[in-house]
Amino acid sequence: MCLHFLSENGVIKGGIGGVSLVSPAQKVWRVAQALGDIAFAYPFSLVLLEIEDTLRSPPAESQTMKAAARASIAVTTFFYLGCGCFGYAAFGDDTPGNLLTGFGEPYWLVGLANLCVVLHLLGGYQVYAQPMFALVERRFGAGVVDAEMPLLGRVSVSRLCFRTGNVAAATAVAVWFPYFNQVVGLIGAFTFWPLAIHFPVQMYLAQGKVAPWTGRWLAIQAFSAGCLVACGFASVGSAMGVFGPERS
């Protein structure tokens, strides 16, 4: 899509300094929001263990997941960078926060892109919702009641009600709460460090029996602390965008 508009414009817009803003403070907050958006773009740690649990060995599950994680991160980064760079080159300072809502034409291209997003989210929701479904159903499994239903056969009433209610609630929140860059950055800033950095680091230190205050331990803890500071910076900038005068 970005390449389409870039070819229509005939020139590369934007500059090396990024979007022109009124004050340096605005530039700082936009950078912080961008860090939050980047953090939100890499949330696979939420489903990493669930996916690994479905693998079979040999080869070892960890070996398979390392190769899969490297490949997925490389491909994801390529597409994200391509979308960001080509989008800025095509639209310059007028680049919309959401490329699918910033313009209406050509309608067929925007419609095709939205269809791809729907297909992506249908599968993504299933993957991300399964851990929560499994937790709730394990906890309240004793209260499951089976019943015969037309066309469905024998189903679990509690499972049917909970999953249907969860999907309805998630849809209502998604419609009610605007999905713009600052909200995405705020969510990414709050979730990235504990889920993708802190807990994996602590598990690694415990599994590897890394002695405290050794060089290796200090390096890992410094990395974790640096990520915490970056997420804190991103959360402040994103909060300024959501609640401050720069809200869009």
From TrEMBL:
Protein name stated in the entry: Amino acid transporter transmembrane domain-containing protein
GO cellular component terms attached to this protein's record: membrane
Main localisation: membrane
Species assigned in the record: Triticum turgidum subsp. durum
Membrane-crossing residue ranges in chain numbering: 71-91, 107-129, 183-205, 217-243
InterPro entries for this protein: AA_transpt_TM
Boundaries of every Amino acid transporter transmembrane domain copy: 21-239
Location(s) in or outside the cell: Membrane
A Gene Ontology BP annotation from the UniProt entry: amino acid transport
Record Pfam families: Aa_trans
